[in-house]
Design a protein that fits this description.
The chain has 16 helices and 15 strands. It is α+β, with helices and mostly antiparallel strands. Helix 2 runs antiparallel to helix 16, helix 3 packs parallel to helix 8 and helix 3 crosses helix 15.
């Protein structure tokens, strides 16, 4: 029975270590700042409580209603050890929330009549149409039905900047993992690779996705968000903290709803893992802290912003696409974005998913639907057209949650909708 004694000692040592590391650093005084409409005091109280009880280490949360900010909160610490606080202008990497931003850029091209989602990708990019990719439409590519979840070898991220022609040829030679249109597999990294080469071919000026967002959205509507970082903003960047593999497994083991994810990750050649190997730098999450890597404008993951910037972007859409007399997208185009393209069981995680034209659909506490995108580690940004509402939660202390189900976000979302009824009545009066 000696082995049992040794196992027990190791087990309790691991448990003690996990508990210690989880609560380490929570002794710092809680810091919460921001603004909120009096009708949304409950949201501010929930945010404050999350920071005060240590559930939230550092984040921002924002809500827009009918194009106006009603909640803009930030709190906690960028880094617990150095006691660096989250500030009003703090920004961080929003990971896959960037995909939703890129989808809105594509929608602008469609709104102007340059892009037809139903047309083949090869209509705009002739070299794309080979090796089993001949029948892939833009709609299929944006809704993760193209089967291009990985590549036949990894490529350096810097090709996006230093050798885009070489990257383009590389992508043209790829073969789908499954027959396009037969199933849904989340294109975690490749989504950005293909859109990076496709959308400039459609834009009459040949602009990059980064340029299109800056000129048509960020500058025009004063949205503090960038695809790829800039050196001038490094001083306000919040480096993310992420769970290592052992911590991630430990968390998954305590959550039955994530056992399917754990089982899928256990297979060496699983689609979940291979989706991350398309680019060399994405094989190791810590590489995203490198400022040289973050400068590359990969529209899968390299968005930099905070809750205010993303809530404002989606808030304009929820307000009919208009703010201060300027039109971002037409209402017809926004309605198209609000229509699901595919609703089925995914082939990578065996979970039901609802994808649109580069956006994901989620439920709200009222039983309705919202569209937007999650980001690695629990981040979320979305628009609720029916309620003229947008919500965004951005943190640099990444959790294990990946499906819009982070309890911190859900608590804030619930409080937001609790307050919405009173506020909307006041607004209508």
């Amino acid at each position: 029975m000696g082995w049992l004694r040794h196992f027990s000692v190791i087990f309790f040592a691991v448990v003690f270590y996990k508990i210690y590391t989880y609560f380490r650093g929570t002794s710092l005084p809680p810091v919460v700042e921001g603004n909120f409409h009096p009708d949304f005091r409950e949201v501010a109280n929930v945010f404050r409580k999350l920071v005060e009880d240590g559930s939230e280490k550092g984040a921002s949360f924002a809500v827009y209603y009918r194009g106006k900010p009603v909640v803009d909160m930030w709190g906690g610490y960028v880094d617990l050890e150095s006691e660096q606080r989250w500030r009003e202008d703090t920004m961080t990497l929003v990971f896959s929330c960037t995909k939703g931003v890129a989808a809105i850029v594509a929608a602008k091209l469609a709104d102007r009549g340059f892009l037809d989602y139903k047309k083949l990708v090869s209509h705009y990019w002739p070299g794309f149409g080979k090796n089993g990719k001949e029948n892939i439409t833009v709609e299929m590519l944006l809704s993760h039905q193209a089967g291009l979840v990985t590549t036949n070898e990894t490529v350096p991220l810097h090709w996006l900047l230093t050798d885009p022609d070489r990257l383009e040829q590389f992508l043209e030679n790829q073969t789908p993992t499954i027959e396009p249109g037969l199933g849904v597999i989340y294109h975690a990294i490749t989504y950005g690779l293909y859109l990076d080469r496709l959308l400039p071919k459609i834009d009459p000026k040949g602009r990059s996705v980064k340029q299109m967002f800056e000129e048509d959205f960020a500058n025009k509507f004063n949205i503090d968000f960038s695809i790829g970082s800039t050196q001038s903003d490094d001083y306000r960047f919040a480096p993310f903290t992420s769970l290592d593999v052992s911590n991630l497994i430990f968390r998954f083991l305590t959550k039955p709803s994530y056992w399917d994810v754990l089982l899928n990750m256990a297979w060496p050649n699983s689609l979940v893992l291979t989706a991350m190997t398309a680019i060399k730098e994405t094989e190791k999450i810590a590489m995203f802290r490198n400022p040289e890597i973050r400068q590359v404008p990969l529209v899968s993951t390299m968005g930099h912003g905070n809750a205010r910037s993303l809530a404002k972007l989606y808030g304009i859409l929820a307000n009919g696409g208009q703010m201060d007399g300027k039109q971002m997208l037409s209402q017809d185009m926004i309605n198209i974005l609000n229509k699901p393209v595919v609703d089925k069981l995914s082939l990578d995680l065996y979970r039901p998913v609802t994808y649109g034209l580069g956006v994901i659909f989620f439920g709200n506490p009222q039983g309705g639907k919202v569209f937007g995108h999650t980001g690695f580690g629990g981040q979320m940004a979305n628009a609720d057209l029916k309620n003229h509402l947008s919500v965004a939660y951005i943190t640099n202390h990444l959790s294990e949650y990946a499906f819009g189900d982070d309890p911190k976000y859900l608590a804030l979302q619930k409080a937001t909708y609790n307050c919405l009824e009173k506020h909307s009545k006041r607004y209508s009066n």
